[in-house]
Amino acid sequence: xxxxxxxxxxxxxxxxxxxxxxxxxxxxxxxxxxxxxxxxxxxxxxxxxxxxxxxxxxxxxxxxxxxxxxxxxxxxxxxxxxxxxxxxxxxxxxxxxxxxxxxxxxxxxxxxxxxxxxxxxxxxxxxxxxxxxxxxxxxxxxxxxxxxxxxxxxxxxxxxxxxxxxxxxxxxxxxxxxxxxxxxxxxxxxxxxxxxxxxxxxxxxxxxxxxxxxxxxxxxxxxxxxxxxxxxxxxxxxxxxxxxxxxxxxxxxxxxxxxxxxxxxxxxxxxxxxxxxxxxxxxxxxxxxxxxxxxxxxxxxxxxxxxxxxxxxxxxxxxxxxxxxxxxxxxxxxxxxxxxxxxxxxxxxxxxxxxxxxxxxx
Amino acid sequence: xxxxxxxxxxxxxxxxxxxxxxxxxxxxxxxxxxxxxxxxxxxxxxxxxxxxxxxxxxxxxxxxxxxxxxxxxxxxxxxxxxxxxxxxxxxxxxxxxxxxxxxxxxxxxxxxxxxxxxxxxxxxxxxxxxxxxxxxxxxxxxxxxxxxxxxxxxxxxxxxxxxxxxxxxxxxxxxxxxxxxxxxxxxxxxxxxxxxxxxxxxxxxxxxxxxxxxxxxxxxxxxxxxxxxxxxxxxxxxxxxxxxxxxxxxxxxxxxxxxxxxxxxxxxxxxxxxxxxxxxxxxxxxxxxxxxxxxxxxxxxxxxxxxxxxxxxxxxxxxxxxxxxxxxxxxx
Lengths: 362, 332
Fold this sequence. Notes:
- The complex is a heterodimer.
- By secondary structure, chain A is mainly alpha-helical.
- Chain A contains 16 helices and four strands.
- Chain A has a two-stranded antiparallel ribbon.
- In chain A, α6 (89-107) runs parallel beside α8 (149-168) and α10 (193-211) packs across α11.
- In chain B, strands 1-2 form a two-stranded antiparallel sheet.
- The two termini of chain B are 27 Å apart.
- By secondary structure, chain B is mostly helical.
- The interface between A and B is large, with 58 and 57 residues.
């Protein structure tokens, strides 16, 4: 649809056409700013280190690196759109991954022959199922019991990590079937499998959020829970579904993690929790709920990936990246605040002028 | 209102009592002065953090940068004191570290009160920045030989007792830092206009503003004070483990928040007491340190703490639900 309109827009002249095009593409100021930032980082890194940065090898290695965090961020985003947060995504991912890994490592000798596909499917189902169960439990605590999401998922984060620790006694579960590792390391044509999975997830959830009734309810609930309730939305059910989906995505991330690293550990990637929040906020998702798009999130994670790959190539320390991430997050928030302030002041000015005009005409 | 406060603290106190009795009945060695000294010593750092976190939670905010501030302060202070060959008292280390903490807290305060940004997001950003700045520009090498003042501080013990294996164990001087921080903060929160203001803006920000409270001043105080406490906690931590490790502490912030919440502080602001926060910290420390004395393997820690958080917060949630009757979520 967007290409159809964009081919027509040049007919209409001046700045109006641009703003109309952006409106049709659902690009708001925030998204545009993010797009500019992402492209700018990309261009700067390409100019500074054209050789390693602009190579197929770099692109391939980047596209193995970000899908895990990307999928976890989408899981986090769902909870944040309702005004909540899901601190348990990494705990869920690790628990799901560990149970799938247990299945793969305990059954593999017997399942040689034609049953390999069945075993791999079984492992995937276990991981996704555990993800869904963890998600439902989060949803139950938030929606039914009424615990603030940040606390409920803080508790379940400890609980799921704890269960994973109890199952593994703190050791890593290692060594799976080669065919299973394809999910984390394989390439279809020129695209790494994790990247394909991420693109699929991003596309599906962009559709779910913008085209389905559930997506609409989710935004309503996030904007104003009381209003949503009084317009007949079953908030409990919407919250349950939201956390269920968040758990499902965490389970998927768990599969990718264990297939990519060939090991499952209870304390893998604990720093991903706050990084996922950072990606969401950078991507324009309002932490108090109701606003945010998957495209914003995708841009945010791409810009962070370009930054960290670029800095690695410029031989900056890894920790410099951490510093810059924090700085970028704060800058984006401050710029957003100032531009909202500026806009509302201009709006006020316009209203005042209009009033003056009307009263002057009298 | 009072009922809920006392009930929540009583709940935690009961769990602690139950745990202590169970651990003690399984392993009588638990009931020794040495064990008490150990538990107190391990509670100091989390206790100081907990007091700061409580203040932020009461004001309706969330701070997750305090561990990064603590690591930053103690690392910079230790390296600086070593570089000038300072041999004097640990008090100087506390002063420098606390001052750096106030400065870093000031950055949080400016972002929070000038730009009206959500506290969780601001401290997420600044936490990353402080840690990244320290590791990228100041150094990553662990300071293994601390300034002499800090070493003397770490060796200072009172009321020594003989342990089972024959050595002596005393009450660490670090415990007195916590014993100083707690009453000071308690006094500020309960007996000053500032403290009542902190409860007020956490309870209802708009109402507090209309009542004439200067929210900016209160927020500046909160985040600078928390930075100061983090600086103090950092020095205590380095002294107790006898190294200044820039990679330490960060990653424990969510457990501290969990401990304080267990003690009855509400994440939505306005509720919480120092006593509750300290009890919550004690509970977590006892589980972390003493589960093993009950014969429970240490890898059960996280699961047990998770279950207690879920149980504790469920009780609070159900209580406040009954209180308000009108819930956002429909329950058929």
